[in-house]
Amino acid sequence: SDRQDRAVFRLRSSRNRLEVHLPQGIAMEQVFVWLNGERVEKFAVDGTRLYIALPGDGTPRTHFLELGYHFLEPTEREGAIAVELPQVGEQVWNRRMYWQLVLPRQEHIVVAPDGFTSESPWSWTGHLFARQPLMEQPELEQWSGALKRTPVSQDTNRYLFSASGYPREAVLRTANRSWIVLGASGLSLVAGLLLIYVPASRHPATLFAVAIGLAGAGAMYPAPTLLIAQAASLGLGLTLLAGLLERSVARRRTTLPATGALADAGSDSTLTQPTAVRSTDPPSTQTVSLGAKSELPQDAFP
């Protein structure tokens, strides 16, 4: 429930003071600043703005600025999240920006932020597909000239995005792994049971429309589609099991022998059954043949 930010800027400026805009809700008294590898103890604060003195004689120089801060209130991690990003100056063009997002292991991004390019392609990990960032923390530190820090835990979900221009905010949507698996597997199980027990759902037109819809969703939203498809594997397995059970039960129903009191009329079997007799006749039992041409005695019944 806690959010911590680490922002690194490699910039070129001829000014003697730098203005930095920080997100709302952070603990301003606990902001850490490093400039060109040295800890900065004194800087001016105005609301969420920092004013940091830059060394130099007015000629353009390259500087390395690093900020670290955390938020006072617990942040909502699941669902729609709007992440406000720190800014250097007013309308300063970012030639290239990388943003690494680290989430708990059970939390996944289902909708990526607009205006950002994903730098985490899908790759096969041995048992499933997963996003693998093109650069991890050590490579990002080397690229930006940041100080070497302890890498984040590998037992996390790490995403990498890139952008340029004036990125102010990143709006994304995340979900817990349990809810993703439950929702995707539940939908696939319901769809599979409909195909098994509702013959109308197996109409070619219906199947064609569903296939077109899935193909369109995959083309428009490839990353969420792949994530949901993997999460639906449990429901697909249960659907396959239900189909096998239904087929086995149906086969047993068709192969069960017919049972009854009498055999087929065309058989040559004989049955021994009591017959009705006249009151003057003694009790008796007759053997009646059930062949196709068998005839009953005319005086067998009153």
Write a brief caption for the model.
It contains 5 helices and 18 strands. It is α+β, with helices and mostly antiparallel strands and 302 residues long. Strands 1-7-3-4 form a 4-stranded antiparallel beta sheet, with no helix packed on it.
Structure notes:
Helices cover 26% and strands 33% of the residues. A hairpin with a 2-residue loop joins β5 (44-46) and β6. By secondary structure, it is α+β, with helices and mostly antiparallel strands. It contains five helices and 18 strands. The protein has helices spanning 137-144, 177-197, 204-220, 222-231, 233-255; strands at 4-13, 17-21, 32-35, 38-40, 44-46, 49-53, 61-70, 79-84, 87-88, 94-104, 107-111, 117-118, 122-124, 129-131, 156-165, 169-176, 270-274, 285-289. It is elongated, with a radius of gyration of 38 Å. The strands form six sheets. A four-stranded antiparallel beta sheet has the order 1-7-3-4, with no helix packed on it. It has a four-stranded antiparallel beta sheet with strand order 5-6-2-9, with no helix packed on it. Strands 8-16-11 form a three-stranded antiparallel beta sheet. α2 (177-197) packs across α4 and α3 (204-220) crosses α4 (222-231).
